[in-house]
Amino acid sequence: MYSYPPEYILHPVPVLGVYGLTTSDETSLLVDVESTDESPSRRSPRSGLVHSLLNILTSKTEYTLYEATRYLSSNQTPPFKVITVSKDYVLPQKQTASSPNLPPPHSKLSPLSHDSPLYPDGVMTPLWVKKYLYSPSVMVGFYDLWEWQAEPGSTPKPKRETGPLASQVLIDPKEREHDHSLSTEINTRRKYFQDKGIKFAAVIILKQRLTDPSTEERLSSIRKQCGLDIKTSFFTIAPGSPTELQDFANNLYRALYEPALQFYSNKLKKLRKKKSRLPSPGMIPRATPDLSSTEPQPLSVTGWMLRYDFKAAFFQEAKQEIDGALKSYEAAYNIITDMLAPTSSITMGHVNLKAHEKRWNEARDLADCINIKICKFYLYMNDPTAALSQLNGHLHMFQSYSPTWGMGEQTFEYWAWLSKQYRIFADIIDAAIHAGYKIPSPAAYLTSAAGAPGSPLLGNPTSGFTSTSGCNPGAILQHPGFYYHLAAMCCAERRRRFLEMERTENADTSKQLLSEKSVDHSSLTIELLTKSYEQFKRYRNGRMTLYLAAEIAGTYYETGKFEMAIKFFERIGKTYRKEKWHMVLTSILRWSLRCAKELGSWERAVECLVELLADDLPMADNKRSDIQKELFDILTVHPLSTAEDHTPLVIQMDQINAFASCHVQIKKQTNFVGAPIDYQITLKTDKNSPPNKMRFNAVKIVFNNPQYNIILKDTGAETEQKSLELIDFSNTLTKVTEEGDYLNWYSTEVDLGIQKNQTKVLQGLVIPQECGELKILSVSFNWITPCWKVELNYPVDKNTEDQPITRRKWLESPSDNESKLVYRILDGRGFHSTVNVMQKPPSIDLKFEHAAPALLDELFKLEVIMTSSETEPVEATIQAEIKNSEGAVIEDYIAFTMEDDNEDIGAVKEATVGRIEPGKSASKSLYLHGGNVTGSRLISITVRYTIIGKGASLPVEKSESLRIPFIAPFDANFELCAQSEKLQKSISPDLDYAERWLMVAAIRCFSAWDLDIKNVQLEKDETFSHQYTSLSLISRMDDFDNQQWKTGHVYNANYLFRIATTDITELQPSIPAGTIVINWKRSGGHDKYYKSIIRLPSIQFQNQDLVVVADIPSEIYLNEPFTLSYTVHNPTEYLADYTASIELSEAFVFSGYKQIKGRVLPLSRTNYQYTCYPLLAGKVKLPRLKVMALRQQGGEKEVPVEIAGTGISIALDNDLQPRQSSTPDSNQQPILAFVNAKRKF
């Protein structure tokens, strides 16, 4: 990372060594957990468990500072770096002394060891850090618990005896033997690692979950023999889900985290003991180094202090003691910066670090890495001021030392190093932000940043700075984009310095220049600018993002990537153009012009040159004149731009800064078909542009209807140009008949020369031939050369918000003085390029005559009177339409004569009215028929006419509508009365059955006018037929002829029907009784009668159930006996059991059965007769036979008693809906009869 040793940059965490999870001995510390020869389907439970657990343990090998310290602030899993080692892994052996009297030899990484890379004066090497990055602080061994099925060919485990005589020992002798061997192996490894100061833990792998008590006893025995604690040193694991395995790993980490920290604490104690033995640097006598000697000098006391401080910081960082690590790193940083100084402040003399030597490079890299750690720790501790102060101090240190190293600000090495530091610092801030850090606001620095050092690029605070007057911007922590931009600036300066040195020095012999030549400076700069752009965009710094995009484009241009450069210039130019940053836009267009010419993209070059002609873009007059000359050179004489024919180039002038404005003004906003429409096109050039006279070759005027398009061609004549000029081409247009792009266009020739500060108005007209919206879409001014066709297009149909809305003006030449042009004010404001073309409004009046309301089923007359106000005769037609407001009615139609048949009628009807003279009227009769549904009808009348004698005249129409209510002429109510027939005596089942129904139809006249009724007739429904049931008319009372009914008149029509069936067991239908047809007309009207139909209700048998029918003589006399007959009728298909009793009456004495118990067969009847002798005269109560029948549904119910010839009565309204129902209840009402007095003899 950043060409620094990665060991110095990584954040260390405790190292956990594991073995026993791989199938073969490992030769390296790290293992690829993804490679395996076994497929998941073939994998055994043990191998699957080991594979999953190994993946979980080794899933994360590197931690950031924020990830590693998360355990301190929340109850999360402690950080561990897990390495896998072989089962016989041993730590590196320390060398022993060759003689008892000699001290032990030093470490292979010590500066005192001859074979060390640091011998004799090296300070620190990344190998030492790497050593502890892969040295375990705790060790975990995984072991399998032996089972009987583990060995192939082994006998099954013998079953243990049970019962009171069974052994209390659960462990089999063979299992005990294997467990003892396992305990011995574990104990050996435990003692070895304990002697090295490393915590050891054992994990027993079970092939299945723990269910056997003997297994628990075995595990307990193994643990006791090994002397391991069950909570912190001895664990078991069985196959389970990934979640359970992850929980096991988390618990393992928590149990071993404290012993791991203790390991690094012990290392710290040893370091501090060694450091305490060092003498103070000030107590060592000052010795002048022998500069003439080439032999390296031993490491000084200062160097040893640096080593111990760096090591202590590393161990504290591994323990996640950030405060202590920060102090140790700061102490180490102070020492190493003093060692890099030309003169040491600690030893008060020279140091032996020669610039650009190996030890110097090592020390400089170490200083940079320590600075990175310190900045990172300060940000972690939420001290941005200290972090930025550390960075700026480090940069100032290098800036002050670099001249003596030959790496001053004039060298590319200095800027390369500075760019790297800013980039790393930006990455540190970005990582902190992703971890939740928030950039403080500048107000937080008002009291804390007064003494902080400033950035070497941004400068130092002034001497008069106080905490109350503001703060130093260089001492304020910004978001990462700010420092990415500084890194990019340094990278760009690095490239410039390199190019300067390459020109002044011999690049072929300089090793540094050869190395720098291989660096892609532009890619680095663009990468940093892109990162800065993304950060500024994230923080919504819009202006800065545009600036950075311009920097990226400039970098692309410097490196010759013109295509990418011009894309960036075009992108940012849109914003500067929209927001009217004309000064910046001018620079961007000049850069874009250079890129376009380098690429040979002459179309882009022409677009840039056209916009650079605008007065809004600040430029000297001679420069603008050069722009115009260059533009026409490209179009006419430039050898590269005119080498081939170019596709037509269309420049949208509303999208750029234009040197001339174009507006369209249509004189009238509304117009009629056939009337001329006048319009003016105003072209107004800028005050100072174009600097020289120029001519257009053509002007295109495009309408929304192509038949009106116009092309104006230049006359080519050099005439004197006026500041205000009006050219009227209305009467000189001719239609183009030649084949080509402008076939059927209108064309003429006008003067198209322009100059600066000029207003040229082109006036024309168009005669519309149809209704609608007529719009001028665009006006294009064209330059046409043999190889080029450039269109300056002005879309005039778009509203421009930036233009002020002024009064509408029309330029015209007064008749008295044609040389002077004046503006006439029109109605409205702004510029109108659209006109609404409409037909001339109708000059005809409509009047309606009718006698509402209308009656259904009649032809209602509506008279339409049309009066013309035109000055010429017209030919008119009329169209009528009838609609029901509540939905379509099929029977509704319109007729123009009363004799129209059904083939010539409809809801929409059209007829010819004929010729109507000016000021005269014509009438047309319409006959409206409304059928079946009452309610209002909407009548729409449309009259179309054309003026006689004008062939091109389009039809003019006028529409009006009116509502006419339709009511029914008649209203009917119905009453149905059932009349049961006298039952005949029958023993066998009788399937025949008949009923009589009397229907009374009350027909009321509902019309507001008197009606002449021709007749009222009953028409049977001939469509009904049934196999068993029939309906016949017995009698009727509706015969009459030619009556007059007034409003409210009621006529009763009586009909007696007989409904009969030959099989009462069949399902009986409802039989339609037919319809009443009334022929009528309005009184005093024409002779045509209309027919209205009233539908009669349907007739159906009464509900068939067990019934008692009483047959009473029609006349009864006092003291004369008579026979009273009761018939129990069972019309159902079920057997009926019943009990009956006769009720007594004071008015009669009788003979017959008083109590009866009987049974009546299905479809049969039983008759009981009583001889009665009247005792009282008048209306008296007859003896009633009370019959109680046993129903099939359960329970007894009284059977109703009906008198022969009576039945139910039903009343219906006009819609055949029941109005009321009256059914006598024979069970509760007594049977009454009238007894006459004695007969007179």
Question: Could you explain how this protein is built, in words?
Answer:
With 1241 residues, this protein is of the alpha+beta class. Helix content is 27%, strand content 28%. A hairpin with a 4-residue loop joins strand 18 (772-784) and strand 19. It starts with 5 loop residues before the first helix and ends in a 5-residue tail after the last strand.
How would you describe the oligomerization state of the chains in this entry? single chain
Report helical residue fraction: 25-40%
Mean of pLDDT:
85
Beta-strand percentage range: 25-35%
Cα shape = flat
Characteristics:
single chain, 1241 residues, alpha+beta, nine-stranded mixed beta sheet, 21 helices
Quick description:
This protein is of the alpha+beta class and 1241 residues long.
Topology (elements, then pairings):
Blueprint: H1 6-9, E1 15-19, H2 45-57, H3 65-68, H4 70-73, E2 81-84, H5 126-133, E3 138-144, H6 173-195, E4 199-205, H7 213-226, E5 234-237, H8 242-276, H9 301-318, H10 322-340, H11 358-380, H12 384-405, H13 412-434, H14 480-504, H15 511-517, H16 521-538, H17 542-558, H18 562-578, H19 582-599, H20 602-612, H21 621-636, E6 649-652, E7 660-666, E8 670-672, E9 677-685, E10 694-695, E11 698-703, E12 710-714, E13 724-728, E14 734-735, E15 746-750, E16 753-754, E17 759-766, E18 772-784, E19 789-794, E20 807-812, E21 822-829, E22 834-838, E23 844-849, E24 854-855, E25 859-868, E26 874-884, E27 893-895, E28 908-916, E29 921-929, E30 935-947, E31 956-967, E32 970-980, E33 993-1005, E34 1011-1019, E35 1029-1037, E36 1043-1045, E37 1050-1061, E38 1071-1072, E39 1075-1082, E40 1090-1095, E41 1098-1099, E42 1107-1111, E43 1116-1117, E44 1122-1130, E45 1136-1142, E46 1148-1151, E47 1155-1160, E48 1164-1174, E49 1178-1181, E50 1185-1190, E51 1196-1198, E52 1201-1203, E53 1209-1212, E54 1218-1222, E55 1232-1236
Parallel strand pairs: 1-2, 1-3, 3-4, 4-5, 6-19, 8-22, 12-15, 13-17, 24-31, 42-52, 43-55
Antiparallel strand pairs: 7-9, 9-17, 10-16, 11-12, 11-18, 14-15, 18-19, 18-22, 20-21, 23-25, 25-29, 26-28, 26-30, 27-29, 30-31, 32-33, 32-53, 33-37, 34-36, 34-39, 35-37, 38-41, 39-40, 42-44, 44-48, 45-47, 45-50, 46-48, 49-55, 50-51, 53-54
Helix pairs in contact: 2-8, 6-7, 8-9, 9-10, 10-11, 11-12, 11-13, 12-13, 13-14, 14-16, 16-17, 17-18, 18-19, 19-20, 20-21
